[in-house]
Each structure stands twice: as structure tokens, then as C-alpha cells.
Design a protein that fits this description.
The protein has about 170 residues and is of the alpha+beta class. It has helices spanning about 60-70, 80-95, 105-120, 120-130, 135-160; strands spanning about 10-20, 25-30, 35-40, 50, 55-60, 100-105. α1 crosses α2, α2 packs across α3 (about 105-120) and α3 (about 105-120) runs antiparallel to α4.
Length: about 170
């Protein structure tokens, strides 16, 4: 590390502190002029490259993903930061896979899964664009699938004992 005052390369670390999980603050001192200065080190995560269906490649953009999710969640009763949190969770899941190249189809499927958990109407909005529904019958089949899943969840909750679930927690009907 070069001293900002004299340019000397010979500096020593006086103090180190973690700022957060991905950054360290270091106080340094120049061995030549005794100037003290602060440096910050951040972990640089591997770049994620999105491989488009036509073979093009572009760098993963979490903001672009969050914008698409937010568009689907427009005017839905969800927290304001739901799209941003979902995009962060999708990015974290992609990075945990350890791959640098990710097919855009994988990201789209993960986005649909996340929206399905957050809000079913938003999921249908996103799926209708992402899957390019050709006709109303395809849309109807997707809605029927969601309704069948909801009925299955309702049937499971109705089958629980009257006292609730183990541990005393109650699960609301959807």
C-alpha cells in the first residue's frame, strides 16, 4: 500500500476492524514519514455472467432483476422492498452455486418461484410475460395449477388437529 503523503510503499498496519461481513477497515502508518491513513478492503465476489437464449452474454444486474420483479408486484399488497429482497435472495442463491455462467432461463425460473411465494397474482403477471403465453388456455392452465395447490394446502390445514400444530403454532388458511 502506498503512503498518500510521500508515496512510500513500506507501510505497516496499526489497527484492523471488521466493518461488516464483506469489508475490513485498516489503519496504516508509513514507515518513512509516519503519516497515518485508513484503507478499506472489500471482498470482490466472482462476476456472474448471464447467458441469454441466443448465446449472448451480459453481466448479471441485480437492479434489472429487481425492476422486473417490482413491475410484477405493482399495486399488490406486499412490502415495498419485496422485489429488492427477492432479487438479493436470487443473487445469493446463484452465487452459492459457485458458477460464473448462469443461463437466463435459470434466473427466470428462480424469479417465478420467488414470486409464487410472495404473491400469486404477481407470479401470473410475470409468468404470462416470461413464458409468452400463446393463448388464454395456457393462462387458464397456470391459474388452475395455482388453485389446485391452494386447495391442497387448505385440505392439509383442515386435517390438522383442533389444537393446532405441534408446538402450539397456528397456521392461517390462505
Amino acid at each position: 500500500m502506498r503512503c498518500p503523503s510521500c508515496g512510500e510503499r513500506d507501510t505497516r498496519v496499526v489497527d484492523s476492524r471488521d466493518i461488516d461481513e464483506a469489508a475490513i477497515r485498516r489503519r496504516r502508518e508509513c514507515n518513512l514519514c509516519a503519516t497515518r491513513f485508513t484503507t478499506y478492503e472489500r471482498i470482490e465476489s466472482a462476476r456472474l455472467t448471464v447467458v441469454k437464449s441466443d448465446g449472448r452474454r451480459e453481466e448479471f444486474d441485480r437492479d434489472k432483476l429487481a425492476t422486473g420483479l417490482a413491475r410484477a408486484l405493482t399495486r399488490r399488497p406486499v412490502p415495498a422492498d419485496a422485489a429488492t429482497r427477492a432479487a438479493e435472495e436470487i443473487e445469493a442463491a446463484l452465487r452459492s452455486r459457485g458458477l460464473s455462467d448462469v443461463p437466463s432461463m435459470t434466473i427466470g425460473e428462480m424469479a417465478m418461484d420467488k414470486l409464487r411465494e410472495i404473491d400469486q397474482i404477481a407470479y401470473i403477471r410475470f409468468a404470462s410475460v416470461y413464458q409468452s403465453f400463446e393463448d388464454i388456455e395456457q393462462l387458464q392452465r397456470e391459474v388452475n395449477t395455482l388453485l389446485a395447490e391452494r386447495e391442497e394446502i387448505d385440505a392439509e390445514s383442515d386435517a390438522r388437529p383442533a389444537g393446532g400444530s405441534p408446538g402450539g403454532k397456528r397456521y392461517p388458511k390462505r
